[in-house]
Design goal:
Elements (H helix, E strand, L loop, with lengths): L1 H7 L14 E5 L2 E10 L5 E8 H6 L1 E5 L5 E3 L2 H16 L3 E10 L4 H4 L3 E10 L7 H10 L16 E4 L5 H6 L2 E4 L3 H5 L3 E2 L6 H42 L6 H7 L6 H29 L3 H22 L16 H19 L2 H4 L6 H12 L1 H8 L9 H19 L1
Parallel strand pairs: 4-7, 8-9, 9-10
Antiparallel strand pairs: 1-2, 2-3, 3-6, 4-5, 6-7
Helix pairs in contact: 5-8, 8-10, 10-11, 10-15, 11-12, 11-14, 11-15
Length: 409
């Protein structure tokens, strides 16, 4: 392109086959502009430059017009070209300028003082990678906005860098991805080995899988532990007895928590606390059982509530908790194994667990109670929640109260 441009704009002695560069240098030590000394067929040495348009233009005193003639730069012409370069930048084009001058006696040191003739300014558009379109569309569907976004707006920013020019943004990003370059790999959280933006979608998908599974596990465990803690506390304070023994608890209970999780686990915990306390104080009279049998029913109902709540924990926001259930074979295997162990615990290991065997009717009663967690989990998801995390709201009120106290003092 530089050769054709030079030929069209008056450099008719430009050699078709170059004899080879005499020397290659950066413009005043700046790597954004590079020049080369070339000797043409007539033996004339020319210094040809290419690089950032604004820097090349600043070192030119004249330009080659469309008519092939040389024209001196005036204030008006230079300002017009400055505007062209800025317009290219606004249009996301990389502006490259080409310039040359004749060098006498191969004196390179004088050739970079003034790039006499500006040949042309071109705007280059960086094409997207072939797979980028589909990857960006997948990111948009997943709620990931592919655009420049300031961290000051409170968003988590990920930057995919592939060179030194991405260094400043790469350093300030929350998540740093590199396209397998030595510079970016040093400070990266994730290195994309196949140099494909489509891998960002895969990394995001797997990251969300792990994050969502952690949320589901925490929601499930918090529901069980909150319910067990309240049940034992109220029972010990009121009657001196714990309906859930130490062995039973050891075997069955042991900024990730969103507002939706708090809503879900609060509803399930309140339901389980209410059910177990009713069984604790009214179970013997309602079912005509002994204290040991009633405690076993409490334990059985509590564990079955956790078992049914595992289905609720599969979805934090969506109401259909059975989506893709048959494909999740590991989940079904865990549920079946837990249910089998619970049956063994109640019906076989009675001496070890301090339980008593239950009748079919008592099993149906416990299962019916636990089954109520499904409609409760479905109904509670109609309750809207704030987007801002609950702990941020508490922290904000804490700051307000602290400032109020200081003003009062």
């Amino acid at each position: 392109m530089g050769r054709d441009s030079a030929r069209r704009h008056g450099c008719r002695h430009f050699q078709e086959e170059l004899q080879g560069p005499a020397r290659v240098e950066d413009l005043k030590g700046n790597k954004k502009c590079r020049g080369v000394l070339i000797k043409d067929t007539a033996g004339v040495v020319l210094a040809h430059w290419k690089g950032a348009a604004d820097m090349i233009l600043a070192n030119c005193s004249a330009y080659v017009g469309a008519d092939g003639a040389t024209h001196e730069f005036g204030i008006h012409n230079r300002s017009n070209l400055d505007k062209v370069i800025k317009d290219m930048a606004m249009a996301n084009l990389c502006s490259i300028a080409f310039a040359f001058k004749q060098v006498h006696n191969n004196d390179w040191s004088k050739s970079d003082k003034e790039l006499t003739l500006l040949l042309s300014i071109v705007g280059l558009k960086h094409p997207c990678r072939p797979e980028a379109k589909d990857a960006i569309e997948a990111c948009r569907k997943a709620g990931v906005a592919v655009r420049m976004r300031l961290k000051q707006k409170g968003h988590v920013v990920a930057v995919a860098g592939d060179g030194i020019r991405d260094g400043p943004a790469h350093t300030e990003a929350d998540v740093r991805l590199s396209m397998r370059t030595d510079f970016a790999e040093v400070s990266s959280d994730i290195v994309i080995l196949n140099n494909s933006f489509n891998t960002v979608v895969t990394a995001t998908r797997w990251g969300r899988y792990i994050y969502n599974n952690m949320q589901r596990f925490i929601q499930f465990q918090l529901t069980a532990n909150v319910a067990a803690l309240v049940i034992n506390f109220v029972s010990v304070v009121s009657s001196g007895n714990m309906p859930l023994t130490t062995v039973q608890q050891l075997l069955w209970t042991e900024p990730l928590i969103s507002n939706a999780m708090w809503r879900n686990l609060a509803a399930q915990a309140v339901f389980q606390v209410a059910v177990v306390l009713v069984l604790q104080y009214r179970g013997r009279d309602a079912f005509g059982t002994s204290q040991v049998t009633n405690d076993t029913m409490i334990f059985n109902a509590f564990v079955l509530c956790q078992l049914f709540n595992e289905f609720n924990a599969r979805e934090i926001e969506r109401r259909n908790i059975f989506t893709g259930l048959l494909r999740d074979r590991m989940f079904l295997l865990v549920v079946a194994g837990t249910l089998a162990l619970q049956v063994v615990m109640v019906e076989v290991l009675t001496m070890f667990a301090g339980t008593k065997r239950l009748s079919w009717g008592q099993w149906r009663t416990c299962s019916s109670i636990a089954l109520m967690s499904w409609p409760i989990g479905w109904a509670v998801k109609f309750i809207p929640v704030l987007e801002r995390p609950f702990y941020e709201i508490l922290a904000r009120w804490e700051i307000v109260l602290a400032s109020t106290r200081k003003e009062a003092d």
